[in-house]
Design brief:
Blueprint: E1 14-17, H1 34-37, E2 45-47, H2 48-51, H3 56-62, E3 67-72, E4 77-82, H4 83-94, H5 101-118, E5 135-136, H6 148-155, H7 159-171, E6 176-180, E7 183-184, E8 189-190, E9 226-232, H8 233-244, H9 253-256, E10 257-262, E11 268-273, E12 276-279, H10 280-286, E13 294-298, E14 302-308, E15 316-317, H11 318-326, H12 331-338, E16 343-346
Parallel strand pairs: 2-4, 3-5, 8-15
Antiparallel strand pairs: 1-9, 3-4, 6-7, 6-16, 9-14, 10-11, 11-12, 13-14
Helix pairs in contact: 4-5, 4-7, 5-7, 5-11, 5-12, 6-7
Bound molecules: zinc ion.
Length: 347
């Protein structure tokens, strides 16, 4: 995603108002993106810990650690590494290292729960895209994961500071996962809310008891709280036709687009466009919008879609977690707020 100037866009739909935090990723598990996950054409098995072999005590500490099998989609290889070490790479990739310590801890527990739920040695099914892997390193499929080299590149002179901060967040929650009915939950989280979280069945195929609509406030100043995508009316119609085979009148999009209803969180549930009814989640993907909280602005030649929030809205808002931490809440408060009725225990 890139910041753009306010020029009139005729050829394609583009983001008009945007600022960046590259490490704040939009979604967890939506959509499955095979292209982003790469191909396991070259599989090498490496013990990550062999690379940075360090002092004996570290080696001792690793004895008895749970080992996870990660498909590194950038290096295209399978890596085996201790779960807790893997989590440092996930928190580094999924959340801004500048966030509050308690928010980083909440992210660490969410990431650990995700991993434990997938681990085959703990009864999980592994990553569905990469044979032999418990999880992959793609945010579009499993969870983002950064190698130490990549962290160094991203953080430059802040590497030591941020790495230590994240390591402590992982260490400070060691072994902790979220359970419901004694089992690890299916974890979902995302970047920024529109002010409320979404109920799971509004986005996915089924409901899960711990995902209910709750307030997530104080995110208005976040870089992705508000964005907009604009494109020419013609282009909008072309994109729709190429996907659904439905021809729209580009001069009357205001009459072609009808919002049918909203979810409890204020996001659009479904719309009818040119007689074709579709879920807002589908529409969002088609036009690459940040969320389904969409306001349409119809211009003479172009259409603007203004969105609030970034991501599917189910579960923890990462920015919301940071805002709760700023208000003095600890990681357990944060998790209990976004994942209702869970217990936090060692897996
Ligand atoms: Zn995966």
């Amino acid at each position: 995603m890139k910041p753009l100037s306010k020029v009139l866009i005729t050829g394609t739909c583009l983001l008009l108002i945007s600022s960046l935090i590259s490490h704040l990723l939009p979604d967890k598990k939506v959509p499955d993106d095979p292209a982003a996950a790469g191909n396991p054409d070259e599989i090498t098995i490496v013990m990550a810990s062999e690379k940075d072999q360090k002092p004996q005590e570290e080696e001792e500490e690793r004895k008895g650690d749970t080992i996870l099998s990660l498909y590194d989609h950038r290096a295209k290889k399978l890596v085996r590494l201790p779960l807790e070490e893997y989590l440092v790479g996930v928190v580094a990739g999924e959340m801004s290292a500048s966030f509050e310590e308690e928010a980083l801890k909440a992210q660490a527990v969410a990431a650990r729960t995700f991993a434990v739920w997938h681990m085959r040695s703990l009864g999980g099914r592994g990553c569905s895209q990469h044979k032999g892997a418990d999880v992959c390193s793609s945010f579009a499929h499993c969870q983002e994961w950064l190698s130490k080299d990549r962290m160094r590149r991203n953080w430059g002179k802040n590497f030591e500071l941020y790495h230590e901060k994240i390591r402590q967040a992982v260490q400070g929650t060691k072994g902790k996962t979220m359970l419901y009915d004694g089992k690890p939950i299916e974890v979902l989280y995302y970047s920024t809310s529109n002010g409320k979280t979404e109920e799971a069945s509004e986005v996915f195929s089924r409901s899960l008891p711990y995902y209910r609509t709750v307030d997530s406030t104080g995110e208005e100043d976040a870089p992705h709280f508000k964005d907009s995508v604009a494109c020419s009316n013609q282009k909008f119609a072309e994109i729709f036709q190429s996907k659904y085979g439905v021809r729209l009148d580009p001069d009357h999009l205001d009459k072609e687009i009808k919002i049918n209803g909203y979810t409890e969180s204020g996001r659009i549930r479904d719309l009818t466009i040119g007689g074709k009814t579709l879920r807002a989640t589908e529409f969002r993907l088609l036009y690459q919008l940040n969320s389904t909280d969409i306001t349409f602005v119809f211009g003479k030649d172009h259409i603007t879609m203004i969105t609030k929030g970034f991501g599917h809205g189910v579960g923890m808002s990462q920015v919301g977690a940071d805002r709760m931490a700023r208000q003095g809440k600890d990681y357990q408060d944060i998790l209990h707020h976004y994942y209702q009725g869970v217990e936090i225990h060692n897996y």
